[in-house]
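Handout, page 2. Input:
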Amino acid sequence: MITAEDGTKTFERILLPSDEMQKFVEGALAGLEVPEAKIKLGTGRVQFETLVKHALIKPLGGDRAASNFISVDRRFDPSDLDKFLERLISCVTTELTPDLVDIANAMRKTNCQFMEVITLLLDHSLKNVAFDTREVGIAGFRLDVEEVRRLALGEEHGCFAVSELQRLIPASSRIVKDLLKGGWLQTVQRKNPVKRNMQTVVEREALTKFKEEFVSLGNLATNRGTRTWCLKKQLDSEFIRPVFEAAGMPFYRQAELK
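Output:
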């Protein structure tokens, strides 16, 4: 309603068409303040703000956190909140049974985020959803924990965590760190299917390719049953030079050793 130009003015100098202002005031007066809206939706503060952040519910106006000259509480249209709840209610598929749990418990037992569960509901991905009529709004939904876990966690990414590389190469933590820092081992970001956080991992194909192409002096000496200094002297005499070093450990190209 307020133009960018008027936004720089103090509130008593801003003029708006009377019919637009009348409509806005009527809507604002009929709207629910945040505490009332939370009760209607059956949510706590964090869940409520998450719904606002993802634009699943939108305030009629006002924003306590952003105003240059006046602080106005947000208000929410009850009919908009009803429409959102109707979308959720349409996801109910079964009768209430003792084995189903509320959303908060489902989140805790599966380590999922609130929006992940809401998305599963709105996408109609969950096949076992009930509603406890003794509760209000979101607090009344009951879910199958195992179904939520299966759909939210997804499949194993099949990659190796950085901590596993010491055993798989094998190499010390210092060598692994240098291999990653130098880009000799390519990493990617994947979501941990259990902890739900993004983690740095190495794809299986990348590790296989690295081991087929390079070998450390230490591992080569172990494979040949000799000492590193003795093997290094032999390789130098054959004019076989390391391709690179990681934490002081020479790495050779496998093809040059055959």
